[in-house]
Amino acid sequence: MVRVKAPGVVKLFGEHAVVYGKPAIAMAIDRFITVEAVKISGGDVEIISRDLGVRGIYLRIIDGSVAEAKILDNAYAAKLASYAYRAVEVTRRFLGVRDGVRLTITSELPVGAGLATSAAVAASTVAAYSRELGFELRKEEVAKLAHQVEVEVQGAASPMDTTTSTMGGLLYIKPGVEVRRIAAKLPIVVGVVERESTTGDLVARVRKLYGRHPGVISRIMDTIELLVNEALDALARQDLELVGELMNVNQGLLEALGVSNRRLMELIYSAREAGALGAKISGAGGGGAVVALAPGVEDSVIKAFKAHGGIGFRADVWEEGLTYIQ
Ligand code: PMV
Question: Which of 10, 90, 101, 133 is 20 to 30 A removed from 23 (C-alpha atoms)?
Answer without folding.
Answer: 90
